[in-house]
């Protein structure tokens, strides 16, 4: 199975400052169709996860443009340009290139 | 409006069985692979099983292979997870998730305890 490794696991941030989360996979996430199926999810306390980014860098509808995704191959990043209070929660990367689907361990974002 | 509604969770003794259901609406169910993703209390997300659109291919995480069976009924727009030989470590909220994760259900809690 593909192992997804996130860092850091805990991220205290100051309101209005940027934040960055890394996600590395144990093998390339480039699919045979040429796409890279790496998604990012946000889970606020007490809620179901919500997908923010799909295929590395595509924002889902309704996701603020302060969220952006980048990367290729085995190395990916989620960035929040200016953290707001509503961004508190746990963020997960997930690969859907290989079977079975696998998630990173999660990164808890909190306000300093 | 897309809806995924799980049911069937509850308290079960170790070694027991449960069958989870996910009723869906608002999209062409037969066109999408489906997943069961679980989250143990205070822990992260784990995709335990995935089934392709026509049900012919199924994938499981190692920890549940041989004990859990994912299935679907495209005529009824429903997804299922038969869970046998349940263990304490299977205690979690189980989510029904469409394809690559844009749509999630609200989850159903499974508690395995004596």
Describe the model.
The complex is a heterodimer of chains A (112) and B (114). Chain A has 112 residues and is mainly beta. Helices cover 0% and strands 48% of the residues of chain A. Chain A has no helices and eleven strands. In chain A, the strands form two sheets. In chain A, strands 2, 4, 5, 6, 9, 10 and 11 form a seven-stranded mixed β-sheet that branches. In chain A, strand 9 and strand 10 form a beta hairpin. In chain A, 35% of the residues are buried. Helices cover 0% and strands 49% of the residues of chain B. Chain B is globular and about 40 Å long. With 114 residues, chain B is mostly beta strands. The mean pLDDT of chain B is 97. Chain B is built from no helices and ten strands. In chain B, strand 7 and strand 8 form a beta hairpin. In chain B, strands 2-10-9-4-5-6 form a six-stranded mixed β-sheet, with no helix packed on it. Chain B has a four-stranded antiparallel β-sheet with strand order 1-3-8-7, with no helix packed on it. The chains are: A mainly beta (112), B mainly beta (114). At the A-B interface, strand 4, strand 5, strand 9 and strand 10 of A face strand 5 of B.
Shape call of chain A: globular
Q: Name the average pLDDT of chain B.
A: 97
What is the oligomeric state here?
heterodimer
Largest sheet properties of chain A? 7 strands, mixed
What summary fits the major beta sheet of chain B?
6 strands, mixed
